[in-house]
Write a structure and sequence with these properties.
This protein is of the alpha/beta class. It contains 3 helices and 5 strands; from the N terminus they run ββαβαβαβ. The chain has a 5-stranded mixed β-sheet, covered by helices on one side. Helix 2 links the parallel strand 3 and strand 4. The two termini are 19 Å apart. The model has no long low-confidence stretch (mean pLDDT 94).
């Protein structure tokens, strides 16, 4: 996972597999970056993700809740069609922006 912070917009680039083995580490790193950078927008970029199970949904929901505590909005991009459908079925389109 890598990230960049430009003018209050923090992009977190996710890669590899997101499952119950990796989600905790990603969550912790993303939360530390949110606290450190205090952005007004967090973009989770899934372009490099090769596999995602339900842990990915939990990851996004958790980052949305964490970001909301800082008045930070959340967007996702680079989702594969299957992963986009899964996130949409969870009702996230009412809380985050899909790009």
């Amino acid at each position: 996972m890598k990230s960049e912070n430009n003018d209050g917009i923090m992009t977190v680039y996710l890669n590899g597999e997101i499952d119950h083995h990796t989600a905790g580490t990603i969550r912790n790193e993303a939360d530390m970056l949110l606290v450190k950078n205090n952005p007004y927008e967090l973009i989770l970029d899934f372009s490099g993700v090769t596999f995602m199970d339900s842990s990915g949904v939990g990851l996004v929901i958790g980052r949305y809740k964490r970001a909301a505590m800082q008045n930070c909005r959340v967007a996702v991009r680079g989702l594969k069609d299957r992963d986009r459908k899964i996130l949409m079925m969870s009702g996230l389109q009412n809380k985050i922006e899909f790009r």
